[in-house]
Automatic annotation (TrEMBL), chain A:
<dbReference type="InterPro" id="IPR001444">
    <property type="entry name" value="Flag_bb_rod_N"/>
</dbReference>
<keyword id="KW-0975">Bacterial flagellum</keyword>
<dbReference type="InterPro" id="IPR006300">
    <property type="entry name" value="FlgB"/>
</dbReference>
<protein>
    <recommendedName>
        <fullName>Flagellar basal body rod protein FlgB</fullName>
    </recommendedName>
</protein>
<comment type="function">
    <text>Structural component of flagellum, the bacterial motility apparatus. Part of the rod structure of flagellar basal body.</text>
</comment>
<dbReference type="Pfam" id="PF00460">
    <property type="entry name" value="Flg_bb_rod"/>
</dbReference>
<comment type="subunit">
    <text>The basal body constitutes a major portion of the flagellar organelle and consists of a number of rings mounted on a central rod.</text>
</comment>
<keyword id="KW-0969">Cilium</keyword>
<keyword id="KW-0966">Cell projection</keyword>
Automatic annotation (TrEMBL), chain B:
<feature type="domain" description="Flagellar basal-body/hook protein C-terminal">
    <location>
        <begin position="91"/>
        <end position="133"/>
    </location>
</feature>
<keyword id="KW-0282">Flagellum</keyword>
<keyword id="KW-0975">Bacterial flagellum</keyword>
<dbReference type="InterPro" id="IPR006299">
    <property type="entry name" value="FlgC"/>
</dbReference>
<comment type="subunit">
    <text>The basal body constitutes a major portion of the flagellar organelle and consists of four rings (L,P,S, and M) mounted on a central rod. The rod consists of about 26 subunits of FlgG in the distal portion, and FlgB, FlgC and FlgF are thought to build up the proximal portion of the rod with about 6 subunits each.</text>
</comment>
<comment type="similarity">
    <text>Belongs to the flagella basal body rod proteins family.</text>
</comment>
<protein>
    <recommendedName>
        <fullName>Flagellar basal-body rod protein FlgC</fullName>
    </recommendedName>
</protein>
<dbReference type="Pfam" id="PF06429">
    <property type="entry name" value="Flg_bbr_C"/>
</dbReference>
<dbReference type="InterPro" id="IPR001444">
    <property type="entry name" value="Flag_bb_rod_N"/>
</dbReference>
């Protein structure tokens, strides 16, 4: 019973964390929109989410002395994109960053909304079940 | 608190763009000035921006900082005008090396970047407030 909620809360937690991380990177890109030589940074949200969701199928250790799979930190996953530079050594595009900013905000807020609904459901179960 | 960091980065961007606006305004205002306190015509100023990591633990998050305000090394404009009080013995007046068109473009670019940083700030604020609503 509790397992379902736990799984959902964990997923939402990771999602919100990645969204804030991405928000920070986008604001860093926008602050440096005119800095010579700056390279934009981004976070592959979908890839991280995918690897989290399919995590259960990963290798298991059957002996305490087996090597554990090294956990990748968020910083490893934040990669510095280096696509073609159009004349300037700075590759931040104002339009693209504004679009990703809005997109990221909307998805953050929808994740929050789903969390709020889930909490509401949980509360209802507790109050109704006690009657 | 992670969202506060995003706010700090946006704030550094606002500050840097405001310095750029001020310097551009100064260049445009002094575009015709032939006398300065240091002597000679006004020299155009350029703002040099630098990306600095917000903290040592997260080098990917970079705020922006005004590294220096430097004089433009390009030559002055020389105009033949013997009647001008600042003309030399050949009748040539040296005017500042300010290119008003370049400065106007700079002004627009700085103001757009300022607005972009403001948008980041208001987005951050709305995300923060939405998160707080969960506690109701």
């Amino acid at each position: 019973m509790w397992g379902n909620f736990q799984k959902l809360l964990d997923t939402v937690k990771l999602s919100l964390r990645l969204r804030t991380e991405r928000h920070q990177l986008i604001s860093s890109n926008l602050a440096n929109v005119d800095t010579p030589g700056y390279r934009r940074k981004d976070l592959p949200f979908e890839k991280i989410m995918q690897s989290y969701i399919t995590q259960e199928k990963s290798l298991k250790t059957t002996h305490p002395k087996h090597f554990k799979m090294k956990e990748r930190t968020l910083d490893d996953l934040i990669k510095s994109y280096q696509p073609e530079t159009l004349g300037t050594p700075n590759n931040v595009s104002l339009e693209e960053e504004m679009a990703s900013l809005t997109e990221n905000q909307l998805l953050y807020e929808s994740t929050l909304q789903s969390l709020a609904k889930e909490l509401e459901r949980l509360k209802e179960i507790i109050t109704e079940g006690g009657r | 608190m992670n969202l506060l960091k995003a706010g700090r980065i946006a704030q550094s961007g606002l500050l840097a763009q405001r310095v750029r606006l001020n310097v551009t305004a100064s260049n445009i205002a002094n575009a015709q000035v032939t006398r300065t306190l240091e002597g000679g015509p006004y020299k155009a100023k350029n703002v040099i921006l630098q990306a600095v990591p917000l903290s040592e633990t997260e080098p990917a998050l970079q705020q922006v900082r005004v590294k220096a305000i430097k004089d433009d090394p390009s030559p002055f404009k020389e105009v033949y005008d013997p009647g001008h009080p600042d003309a030399d013995e050949r009748g040539i007046v040296r005017y500042p090396n300010v290119d008003v068109i370049t400065e106007m473009v700079e002004l627009l670019s700085a103001s757009r970047a300022y607005e972009a940083n403001l948008a980041v700030l208001s987005t951050t604020k709305s995300m923060f407030l939405r998160t707080l609503e969960l506690m109701k």
